[in-house]
Write a structure and sequence with these properties.
The protein is an alpha/beta fold and about 230 residues long. The protein has helices at about 10-20, 50-60, 75-80, 100-110, 125-135, 160-170; strands spanning about 1-5, 25-35, 60-65, 90, 115, 140-145, 185, 195-205, 210-220. The protein has a 5-stranded parallel sheet, sandwiched between helices. It has a 4-stranded antiparallel sheet with strand order 7-6-9-8. α3 (about 75-80) packs across α4 (about 100-110).
């Protein structure tokens, strides 16, 4: 099975990629939709350049697909890019967005390839704890909910911080996996590539929300993190 992974560089994309690898499939491409406009109903915008570095550490080709983020045009641009690839399936990390899942499935049907969403309706707690347990470096790059302050921005989740995140999610009643937009992530290391990505950035806080303003990425090829 020759597959491409639709990847924003975050935890859901990384988990879907790892799942495909565990199936024994040939992961030939990491495909990233790069939004040049100000917004997108479908795709993550900040930090997606990390996928280029993930691809380098895994020895996989990275395919950036540039688009303006217009509701229909962005899917047309993605479909056009995928039509040039010799793949059997597209794997994406959709968790609970029917809007995202249905549009990707429709596009894959048009292309004559299979759409896989292995995380679909996976329990949030099991999803986020499983990533840490399996050696993923999940970095929180933005927060936007009560209970998560500036100290969480730039933090790599580990056994201790996961416990704190779970407790805060219970107290403040937010989705522990961030699926409601409570926080965004990037993955800097994992079991599916050798080495580690370092993020250079500055924390920006806007009163009730904040983000990591990313300056650059760098890779270390001589170590295996996790």
């Amino acid at each position: 099975m020759r597959v491409a992974i639709l990847s924003s560089g975050g935890k859901d994309s990384a988990a879907a990629w790892w799942w495909a690898t565990c199936q024994g499939w040939d992961v030939n491409y990491l495909v990233t939709v790069v939004i040049n406009g100000e917004d997108s109903m479908m795709f993550q915008i900040p930090g997606v350049g990390v996928v280029e570095y993930q691809a380098k550490l895994a020895g996989i080709e990275w395919l950036p697909v540039e688009t303006q983020g217009e509701q229909n045009k962005e899917m047309q641009d993605l479909e056009h890019a995928l039509s040039n690839l010799a793949i059997d399936a597209l794997v994406c990390g959709a968790l609970r967005s029917d809007y995202q899942k249905s549009r990707i499935e429709r596009m894959c049907h048009n292309l004559g390839i299979i759409s896989y969403t292995p995380l679909w309706h996976q329990a949030g707690l099991g999803h986020i704890t499983g990533l840490v347990e399996n050696g993923f470096g999940v970095v929180i790059t933005s927060v936007a909910c009560e209970g998560l302050d500036a100290s969480w921005i730039g933090k790599t989740l580990d056994n201790d911080s996961i416990k704190s995140l779970i407790e805060l999610s219970k107290i403040h009643r937010f989705n522990v996996d961030g699926e409601g937009g409570e926080y965004e992530t990037l993955v800097t290391y994992g079991p599916h590539f050798v080495g580690k990505i370092t993020i250079d950035g500055e924390v920006k806080w806007f009163g009730q929300r904040g983000e990591l303003e990313i300056k650059s990425f760098a890779t270390s090829l001589d170590c295996r993190a996790g």
